[in-house]
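help with this:

***
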Amino acid sequence: SSIPQDNKDSVAAALGGNWAALAKDKFGSRVLDSFYNNCSLDQKVRALRTNLATGRHVLMMSRGVKEQITKELAEAQDELRNNYFGRFALNNCNVRQYKSRADAWR
């Protein structure tokens, strides 16, 4: 794609922690699908996290985008099962396989 990797990383980092919420929304689920389908498994995201105790920002390397998305969806699986768009996200991101056989999923 013609979008610079740094821009993609910034957007993915900003969305981190919100993948399950996006999955439940009609349009947000499309954003999630686009990220999931257009990133490589080993792609790294530079996530800027705020240390709430000190108020300082810490630059951290997070897991690959696909695994980050899938992990967040797996943690919210019960909630997503009860949502029309959430069910599609669970299936499209192979959350069942991730939870039962993470090595095979990778």
